Amino acid sequence: RAFCCSVITTGLTHMLSNIRTGLRTPLWVVQDLAKRSAPLVPLFMAINDYIGCVATVSGRSMQPTFNTRGEHSRDALLLDKVSVYMQRYRRGDVVVLRSPADPTEMLTKRVIGIEGDWIYKRDGRREVVQVPRGHLWVEGDNEFNSNDSNAFGAVAAGLVEACVAFKLW
Question: How far apart are CA 65 and CA 110, in angstroms?
Fold first, then answer.
């Protein structure tokens, strides 16, 4: 990180000195910054795709854990993607996954059961289901406002995109 900051700082200092001397126009400043930072883009993309990232969560399904300030608030989360590749899921983990009903929608839910577990559904009938191999049982913390495994059943572990490492704010 220090190296990246050093390269950017050096580049900015160089560009600003050139501006003061009248050698470059503001358009050249932007182009120069783009050229100097372009080699870092693959690094940041790899970190985002394979190690972790910061994301926001909205909605009421995970209240009171997230979005405690109201229905329209958005909490920032640090997501861990390494755990997903290692398939290290534990009961109680909060995960971000693709909705089995709509793959363009991302859901944030808590892992209640892992493969082989017997789970009581929240449907009021006390129905018991077993989580199949390669699947997880996920539920929102707000039982009255959550579209989760009680609605669509156990989800394939392959739908999980990240585990929540912690809440930033």
Answer: 10
